[in-house]
Each structure stands twice: as C-alpha cells, then as structure tokens.
Amino acid sequence: TFFDLETTGINVATDRIVEISLLKILPDGNRSAMTRLVNPTIPIPAETSEIHGIFDKDVADKPTFKEISGELIQFIGNSDLGGYNSNKFDIPLLVEEFLRADVDFDVEGRKMVDVQNIFHKMEQRTLAAAYSFYCNKDLDKAHSAEYDILATVEVLEAQLNKYENLQP
User: Fold this and answer.
1) How far is it, in rounded angstroms, from Cα 72 to Cα 140?
2) How far apart are CA 90 and CA 108, in angstroms?
3) Nearest Cα to 13, choosing from 83, 107, 92?
4) Whose C-alpha in 16, 33, 70, 158 is 20 to 30 A from the C-alpha of 78?
5) Are 93 and 8 spatial neighbours (Cβ–Cβ below 8 Å)?
6) What angle do CA 112, 115, 116 make, to 5 degrees?
7) C-beta separation of 17 from 37 below 8 A
8) Alpha carbon 51 to chain centroid distance?
9) What is the Cα 5 distance to its own chain's centre?
10) Which helix (H) or strand (E) holds 83?
11) Contact yes or no for 24/74 (Cβ under 8 A)
C-alpha cells in the first residue's frame, strides 16, 4: 500500500493528518484506492494550508482520524508500505495517529519502500553529477581544489541560464 499524507505541519509527534490517500497494489496487479479528508481536531496553520490547499473549513465536518482508523486498518491489512519520504515522515506520523486513536498498527515485519531513498541512492548528488547534468561534461579531475571550484562556477552559470527565476 503506497500512501501520502497532507498534515497540519511537519512535526511527527504533534502534527495531524488532514488528508490521506492510499493506493493498494495486489500481487496480481489489481489496484484499489482510497482518499479521505480528516478533521485533525487542531487548527491547520495558514502557511500549511497555503501549501496543500486544505483549510479548516474543508475538514470541519469530516471524520476524525480515530473515526476512520478501522476503515484504514482494514484497507491496509498486512500490506507492505511505500511512499515518497515515507520512512522519515509519513510512516512515523501514521503510526503516531494510530497510537492517539488507541489502534494497534504494527509496522514490524512489513517492507517499507521509500521512493525518495531509492532516488537518492541511484542518482548521485555530487559535484561530478551536477557538472554532468548542467554542463554535459565529465569532471575528470574531481577532488582537485582548482578543478572543483572551476566546475562549481560553471555549474552556477549553467543554473542561472537554465532557471530564469534564480537571483545571483
């Protein structure tokens, strides 16, 4: 079950879910989905609402997490879990919400697929990778201070040309 949360903020211990969307992919390839707005029982900060577009008025008459926790448990079942940045944020916050709802939700024994982790492992975030991406060149003498700084300046110049809204 892949899932994503929209929340009242980024503090796993104190913030709450305002929207949850789940996509369950079965071994035979069939898929089922569920999306629910959730009344977080606390105000959604204006700056957070500006990011995800969900305001207090949008969730005022929606069920609380506790009220939909049984439906979520049934949907997720014994699935492995996946998402983007899910291991650091979504899974811990989901576990916290289930704890607050007095619902046993154990992640022990489940595989957790975090697509962001795969991205970071497979796509380097080094000067050589940036030089290749922005300048279409190989950084042959990486870790030579002189070549590294020349490449860094060339990458910045390429970024300024590529992204119109960057300010030098």
Assistant:
1) 52
2) 16
3) 92
4) 16
5) no
6) 115
7) no
8) 14
9) 8
10) strand 81-83
11) no
Element (H, E) at 22: strand 17-25
Q: Provide the 3-class DSSP secondary structure of residue 114.
A: strand
Residue 88 CB neighbours (<10 A):
12
Tokens of 105: 């939700």
CA–CA separation, 140 and 155 (whole Å): 15
Q: Looking at residue 101, what is its pLDDT?
A: 97
Sequential pLDDT tens for the chain (168 residues): 999 999 999 999 999 999 999 999 999 999 999 999 999 999 999 999 999 999 999 999 999 999 999 999 999 999 999 999 999 999 999 999 999 999 999 999 999 999 998 888 888 888 989 999 999 999 887 677 888 889 999 999 999 999 988 765
